[in-house]
Amino acid sequence: MTFEKICKVADIPDGGVIGVEVGETPVALVRKGEEVHALHDVCSHAEVKLSEGEVYDDTLECWLHGSCFDLRTGKPTGPPANKPVPVYRVKIDGDDVLVSLSKES
């Protein structure tokens, strides 16, 4: 599994979300305290950037129609979305956030 350095932990506001590119893949990075979650940055319902949405508890809410996604699994937790978004592995190395798009083996 290959991890790529994406940003500093401090670049992601605590309780917030930023959009980044990992290669050509759009990724939404969400920080909750010491944890960072990475989800595909495209809503499975309306194909807009999830990184422009809001974070509530363990959920990322899409700004357009209010679809909600679990930060850990990418599964929809509120309509209108009914398909999950991919989630990616994250490692913290010192102050750096690393993300892997590879599937676990």
Automatic annotation (TrEMBL):
InterPro entries with a match to the protein in the record: Rieske_2Fe-2S (IPR017941), Rieske_2Fe-2S_sf (IPR036922)
SUPFAM superfamilies the record matches: ISP domain (SSF50022)
PANTHER family documented for this protein: 3-PHENYLPROPIONATE_CINNAMIC ACID DIOXYGENASE FERREDOXIN SUBUNIT, FERREDOXIN-RELATED
Name recorded for this polypeptide: (2Fe-2S)-binding protein
CDD domains on file: Rieske_RO_ferredoxin
Pfam families for the chain: Rieske
Domain named Rieske: residues: 4-99
Entry keyword Repressor: no
Keywords: 2Fe-2S, Iron, Iron-sulfur, Metal-binding
One Gene Ontology term of the molecular function aspect: oxidoreductase activity, acting on paired donors, with incorporation or reduction of molecular oxygen
Cytoplasm is among the record's keywords: no
